[in-house]
Amino acid sequence: xxxxxxxxxxxxxxxxxxxxxxxxxxxxxxxxxxxxxxxxxxxxxxxxxxxxxxxxxxxxxxxxxxxxxxxxxxxxxxxxxxxxxxxxxxxxxxxxxxxxxxxxxxxxxxxxxxxxxxxxxxxxxxxxxxxxxxxxxxxxxxxxxxxxxxxxxxxxxxxxxxxxxxxxxxxxxxxxxxxxxxxxxxx
Length: 187
What we know:
Layout: H1 3-11, H2 16-23, H3 30-38, E1 40-43, E2 48-51, E3 85-88, E4 91-94, H4 106-122, H5 132-137, H6 153-166, H7 171-186
Antiparallel strand pairs: 1-2, 3-4
């Protein structure tokens, strides 16, 4: 499908998603990425794709093949020196000293990766896939003892609403499951 055909069909009311399926690319982002690579910019206020690249508009470019990148015209945003980034053994190295204020530095990215890695290590490997009702059925029916627990009024109301919505008859069993999860997580 040619760019001019795509633009015409969008003007006639067809969706980008339907056209992406026809072209055979990812319906969520495939055509959007190809249009951006060609130099087009989507204007949300008019809901149209506008040419924003340099030179002649590539109306005869075929979107069903791989699209080469076309340079866009400079925008009003701050001009930033191009940065080449390489990932080497989970470390990021950049080829320049100056980076845009909004971008993360290499050290920040390494710190974020370390946080994610430590969170993944501390998080349980497999989440409990059983339903709430299955877990209530599996509660050990051993001898129970009575404990008075004082709850905040808001939390108590939310517990009542949750029990009604989920059709849980015993708040004690629900609290027992919550306490088991709390103790398992933090001990």
